[in-house]
Give the backbone structure.
Amino acid sequence: MTAFKSVIFFLLVAILIQGLVPAYFLKANTPLVDPGLWRLLAIPLWLAGWPALVWCFWSFTIHGHGTPNPLDPPRQLVVTGLYRYVRNPIYIAAIANLVGWAFWSPSLPMLLMPVIGFIASYLFVVFYEEPHLRRTFKAVYEQYCQTAPRWIPRLK
């Protein structure tokens, strides 16, 4: 059942926010500048971002016994996979996908999406997610914070 809930959340949130909404803005807005070769930078961002999102959803489901949905969070702290290197790979992957859209079609909405996405993610992480994880997982989470940075992956 947890896997089903993760898939539903992925379809509703990830695909809606990072696929359908940008596709709508793509059709509804003219780029401010011709993307030219910049458009090619979108492809590696998407090739990294989408699989990373799927990997994170998988990790939450299999290792955390929960979903990325804050209403049904993991019951165990996930520190494997991409979470070994950074505490918020889901948000980083999502921002990478949105930056890809900005390179693909640099209209005002497309350029604002990754900025708004990062600000919203940052505020959510700092004011809700991290305090919740500290209360839930206590010393284990504090130790994890010492080994995995919040935003920039540590590749050691």
In short: The mean pLDDT is 93. DSSP finds four helices and no strands in the chain. Residues 29-147 form one domain. Residues 108-147 form the longest helix (40 residues).
